[in-house]
Each structure stands twice: as C-alpha cells, then as structure tokens.
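call fold target=Hydroxymethylpyrimidine/phosphomethylpyrimidine kinase
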Amino acid sequence: MSGRAAPPRVLTVAGSDSGGGAGVQADLKTMLALGVHGMSVLTAVTAQNSLGVQGAWELPVEAVRAQYRSVVDDIGVQAVKTGMLSSAELVEAVSDLIAGTDAPAVVDPVGVSKHGDPLLASSALDSVRTRLLPVATVATPNLDEVAQLTDIRVESERDLRRAAEAVLAFGPRWVVIKGGHLSGDAVDLLTDGSEEHWLRAPRHDNRHTHGTGCTLASAIASELAKGRSVPEAVRAAKDYVTGAIASGFALGAGIGPVHHGW
Ligand code: PLP
C-alpha cells in the first residue's frame, strides 16, 4: 500500500508547556486542527500549569540542531514556526538553521509569559534583533515584545504603525503587531512596509487565553504551508485564534487555555 498523499508539513521550534496550553503542545494542536502534519524541535522544557511557569530547562544546542536536521533532511518542511528560544545561543543556532531552509518562517519573538515568567534571557534580545528577525517571513510580536525589542510603548491603535515600522527595520518581510492588549476590539496590523492590513475582531470577555500567541503563529505557518499568501494566511489564522479564544476554558486554579478543534 502506498498510503494517502502526505499533507503539508509544518515544523515548530519551541518550548514544551507541560500543561498543554501553550508552546509546542498548542502548536501541534493547531496544526492538527488545520489539516497539516505537525512536527516539533524542542528547545526547552517547562514545568507549567494554569498558575504560571514553575521551572524551565533549556536543551543543549546540539540537541536542537540534531532534531531540526532529522526532520528537514528526511521529511522536509513547507513552513517553520519558532516560539520560545530561551538563550542567545539557541536563537543564533535556530536563525542559522532557518536561513539554510527553503521554507517560509513565522517568528513569534516570545519574551515573557502572560504570568510574567521570562521565556527568553534578556541577553538574547540582541540576537533576536540581528539574527532571527532578518530571516523571518512573518514576525508576530505582541505589545510587550514590541516594547522589549524597540522601546516603543504602544498605547493606542495610532501607535501600531510606528511599532510595525520599527520591527520591520530589523528585517522580517512582514510583521503582525498584535494589539490584543489594547482596550476595545482586538486589532492587529499586518504590513510589509507598503501594504497594510488591519485585522479586527470583537473582544471576547474570556480570561482563558493561555496559548493565544503560539496558536496564531502556528496557524499562520500552517496556512502558508498550504500555499496561501501571507495576507490570506494571517487572515485565516486570526479567524482561527478568535474562535479558539471564544471557546477557551477554565482549567486548574488560574488561566485556562484556548480551545482547538471547536
Ligand atoms: N510556555 C511556552 C513554552 C511558550 O512558548 C509560551 C508562549 O509562547 C508561553 C508559555 C506563554 O503563553 P501565554 O503567554 O499565552 O500564557
């Protein structure tokens, strides 16, 4: 038997969330829901639940490189997504791997979790600016990450364009500035410096949003792997994450996860 035709293949390079709400676990759930074959390169393991991150352990850089080579050299990828990269050494190694891979890369420049737990060393910020963002097809910073990377504090929708220009100056082809932490509608700005797409969704009154950022970036990567353009992929991903937030559920004593496969 030859089996059915393989679906598009998408690789996440990210950390594990033992609680299953964010990180690699959210990425693989998103990929399953969107009909692509999900694969993972683990960069770090976190002990984590609805209350926050209780511990984090980085993998050796050789282990990250070996996982990546195993996947890309045999199976191949139509898109790559990066999440928690933890240290400057890992950021630089992953940037080099992506630069040598012929597939679009969605970079979620993960800095700090919603609970305020650091997922990236502050000494790695410069490597994100100078090594990782230049190899990104799409970068997806939230407003805290924009502040960390550019010193721009976005306080209203009007500041989003200035934030996008500052992130684009580091070299990604496209940027999605996630304005979800502003009040009012959840507004994101997607731009490549010439085209602008404002993506607006009604705000859901639901605090169970753990894993939102991971889910959006993985959904963009999944849609790119299917051959969609960046604007089409980001619109479809925004719809997916809006549905996932709407059906986020309580779990444990803290913040529950967004829900996949609704
Ligand atoms: N844990 C891991 C491993 C992550 O990669 C991320 C985000 O990228 C988080 C936790 C934080 O998720 P959130 O800020 O949605 O709670």
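return ok
The chain is about 35% helix and 20% strand. The beta strands are 9-17, 37-49, 52-58, 79-82, 105-107, 138-139, 174-178, 186-191, 196-201.
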